[in-house]
Write a structure and sequence with these properties.
Layout lengths: L2 H7 L8 H14 L15 E5 L2 E4 L4 E4 L2 H4 L8 H13 L10 H13 L4 E7 L2 H16 L3 E5 L8 H6 L18 E4 L14 H19 L4 E7 L14 H12 L2 E5 L23 E4 L11 E6 H6 L15 H16 L2 H23 L3 E7 L2 E9 L4 E2 L11 H12 L2 E2 L1 E3 L2 E4 L7 H19 L3
Parallel strand pairs: 3-14, 5-6, 5-7, 7-8, 8-9
Antiparallel strand pairs: 1-2, 2-3, 4-10, 9-10, 11-12, 12-13, 12-16, 15-16
Helix pairs in contact: 4-11, 5-11, 8-9, 12-14, 13-14
Bound molecules: pyridoxal-5'-phosphate.
C-alpha cells in the first residue's frame, strides 16, 4: 500500500460540523494555558471523538494513535467496559473521602497489590504520577531518617516540585528558575549503551560499569545521607532506555547494602506498556516502593499511586503519615482502574503487547532502521519503542541537538508533520520518535502506522 492509499483509506471519521471545531479552537486559544509549551506557538487540533486506537477532528480526519495520549491510554480510547464502569459508579456514588472504606477503592488496591511483586501489599492513591513520586520520596525520607535522593540523568519523574527536581533533564528546570527543587537530589548516569558514558561496548560492560559508577556516587555522597534511589524501570520520556541484564538487580543489591529505599517509577512503564504488568517483572526485581499512574486506568479518570512494601508500611503503623490528598482513591478513578485491569486480563492485552513487540513492531522497526541512514538505533519492548535519529550514522551526531530551538528542530518536526498528514499521530522527543500505541493495537494497525513512519523517515534521511 502506498502512503497515499494508506492516507485515503484511514482518513475519515464520522461526519461532523467543522464550524463547531472552529469554536472549540477559539475557546482553547482564548482561555487555555498549555503544559510544556510556548503559549504563542500552540495550535491544538480540536478533537471531536475517539474510539479504539483512533481519534478524529471536526473535519472528519482520523488519526491512528501511536501516542496513547502521553503514553497513557494502554487500552485505547472509549473501552466499553471501562466507560460502563465509570457510569455505574457515577450513578451510585461519585465521591466519598478517603477516610471511608469504599468498595471500588479497596478492590482497586487489592488488584494492584496482587499484581505487584514481593510484599508490596498496600497502596496510597494519588491523582497522577508526579504526586506518586512526591509521596514515595516522602515515605522513604521518613522511613530512613535520611534526606538525599538519587535519580538518573535522562529521566522524567513529573512536573511538581520534588518530581521536577528528580527529573534528570535540565531543559525542564526552567519552571524552577533557580533549580531549587533539586535540593537534596543527586543525579547519576544510568546505562545507555548507544551513547555509553562508560566507554562500554557490550551490555554486560555497560551494566557493570554503570553499577560501579552508581556505587562510587553513593560512597562519595555518604551512604548514610541517602534515603532513596528512584529509577524508571525503563526510562520513558528520555529515550525508552531498556536497562541491560543485571542492572536493576544490581541497583537492588546496592540499596540493600547501604540501607537505601529503592523506588521504581513505573508511571509510564507499568500496566502493560512494557509487555508485562510492571517492567521490573522482566528482571524479577522487587523494589521497596513502586509508583504508578497512566495505564492503571488508561487515564479515563486521573489516578496514580504508590505501592508500599510491608517493611515501609510498618514505619507508619504507629506514626502518622503526614501526607494525603482530597481526591485520594477517588471512586470514579478506582472503578475505572478495576474495570481496566479486568479488561486487560480478560482480553489478554499484556500478552498482546508483549507479542506485538516481539513479532510485529520490533522486527518491522529493525527493517526500517536498516533501510534508513537517519535511524541510529531502535530499541524497546512491548508497545514501548523509540527510534533514535542521527545526522551522521558513524559519529552518531544527533539529528537535532539537545535543547535545540527553532529551525534546529526542523528535521524531526518535518517527519512528524508528514506522519500527521498521512493520519498517524506519533510522539516525538528531541531526536527521537517514540512508537507507543495502546496494548490492544492490532497487527494491521501497527503495520499500517509503521508503513507511514517508514515513508516519513525519508525526510530525515535527506538531512544525513
Ligand atoms: N514518572 C514518569 C516515568 C512519567 O513518564 C511521568 C509522566 O509522563 C510522570 C512520572 C509524571 O506523571 P504525571 O504527569 O501523571 O504527574
Amino acid at each position: 500500500m502506498t502512503i497515499e492509499q494508506v492516507a485515503i483509506s484511514e482518513s475519515r471519521g464520522p461526519l461532523l460540523d467543522p464550524s463547531e471545531g472552529l469554536r472549540v479552537y477559539a475557546d482553547d486559544r482564548a482561555h487555555l494555558f498549555h503544559s510544556w509549551a510556548a503559549q504563542g506557538a500552540v495550535s491544538p487540533i480540536p478533537v471531536a471523538g475517539a474510539q479504539g486506537r483512533h481519534f478524529w477532528d471536526y473535519d472528519g480526519k482520523r488519526y491512528l494513535d501511536f501516542s496513547s495520549q502521553f503514553i497513557n491510554t494502554n487500552i485505547g480510547h472509549g473501552h466499553p467496559k471501562v466507560v460502563a464502569a465509570i457510569k455505574e459508579q457515577a450513578d451510585r456514588i461519585c465521591m466519598i473521602a478517603s477516610t471511608f472504606a469504599n468498595d471500588k477503592r479497596g478492590e482497586a488496591a487489592r488488584l494492584i497489590a496482587g499484581l505487584a511483586p514481593g510484599d508490596l501489599n498496600r497502596v496510597l492513591f494519588t491523582n497522577g504520577g508526579a504526586e506518586a513520586n512526591e509521596h514515595a520520596v516522602r515515605m522513604a525520607r521518613v522511613h530512613t531518617g535520611r534526606t538525599k535522593v538519587m535519580a538518573a540523568y535522562r529521566s522524567y519523574h513529573g512536573g511538581t516540585s520534588t518530581a521536577i527536581g528528580l527529573t534528570g533533564d535540565p531543559r525542564r528546570w526552567d519552571n524552577d528558575a533557580a533549580g531549587n527543587s533539586g535540593s537534596g537530589v543527586v543525579h547519576f548516569f544510568g546505562p545507555y549503551l548507544y551513547r555509553s558514558h562508560f566507554h562500554a561496548t557490550t551490555e554486560a560492560e555497560e551494566s557493570a560499569r554503570a553499577l560501579a559508577h552508581l556505587e562510587q556516587t553513593i560512597i562519595f555522597e555518604g551512604p548514610r545521607t541517602i534515603a532513596a534511589i528512584i529509577l524508571e524501570s525503563i526510562v520513558g520520556t528520555a529515550g525508552v532506555l531498556i536497562p541491560p541484564p543485571g542492572y536493576l538487580a544490581g541497583v537492588r543489591a546496592l540499596c540493600d547494602k547501604y540501607g537505601i529505599v529503592y523506588i521504581a517509577d513505573e508511571v509510564m512503564s507499568g500496566f502493560g506498556r512494557a509487555g508485562a504488568w510492571f517492567a521490573v517483572d522482566h528482571w524479577s526485581v522487587t523494589p521497596d516502593l513502586i509508583t504508578f499512574a497512566k495505564g492503571v486506568n488508561s487515564g479515563y479518570v486521573p489516578l496514580g499511586g504508590v505501592i508500599i512494601s510491608d517493611e515501609i508500611h510498618e514505619t507508619f503503623r504507629d506514626r502518622v503519615y503526614q501526607g494525603g490528598l482530597t481526591y485520594s482513591g477517588h471512586p470514579l478513578a478506582c472503578a475505572a482502574a478495576v474495570a481496566t485491569i479486568s479488561a486487560m486480563q480478560e482480553e489478554g492485552m499484556i500478552d498482546n503487547a508483549a507479542r506485538l513487540g516481539e513479532e510485529v513492531i520490533g522486527p518491522r522497526l529493525r527493517e526500517i532502521a536498516a533501510a534508513h541512514p537517519s535511524v541510529g538505533e531502535v530499541r524497546g519492548t512491548g508497545v514501548f519503542w523509540a527510534i533514535e535519529l542521527v545526522r551522521d550514522p558513524e559519529t552518531r551526531e544527533m539529528l537535532v541537538p539537545y535543547a535545540g530551538v527553532g529551525a534546529q528542530n526542523a528535521p524531526v518536526n518535518e517527519v512528524v508533520a508528514a506522519c500527521k498528514q498521512a493520519g498517524l499521530w506519533p510522539v516525538y522527543n528531541f531526536n527521537r520518535i517514540h512508537v507507543v500505541p495502546p496494548c490492544n493495537t492490532t497487527d494491521d494497525e501497527a503495520l499500517h502506522g509503521l508503513a507511514i513512519l517508514d515513508e516519513a523517515l525519508k525526510i530525515a534521511d535527506s538531512y544525513v
